[in-house]
Amino acid sequence: MRHVWCDRSHEWRAGSYTWTQVKSVQNLIERCLNQYMTQAEVIATLQVQADVDPALTCLVWSKLEEANPDFFLSYDVRLKLKDQVVAFNYLVEQQTRLLQKLTLALPQQSGGGLMD
């Protein structure tokens, strides 16, 4: 599957990279995949933290996708699940805050009974 962050214009440069560079970027990408990063996050992270040309990251990513299509299909599902968990946790946090505000806004009753 082709992601929007990489296009075919980078592939012509494939001959300008050494095998060592390609293997190094592959290892870095695999480490990022273990952190459940999106393709865009991987590209940005490798560019900023390891000074990797985004074209090289795209090239290696696309070759990994071609060689491991089943993995990337399941990886995309896991990324979607991760996004859903993050969204769910955010909503739970918001609900907790609202309930705390509501509890603080309710009048306090002495004695704990309704008929005091």
UniProtKB/TrEMBL annotation:
It comes from Pelagomonas calceolata. It comes from the Eukaryota. This is Uncharacterized protein. NCBIfam families: A_thal_3526.
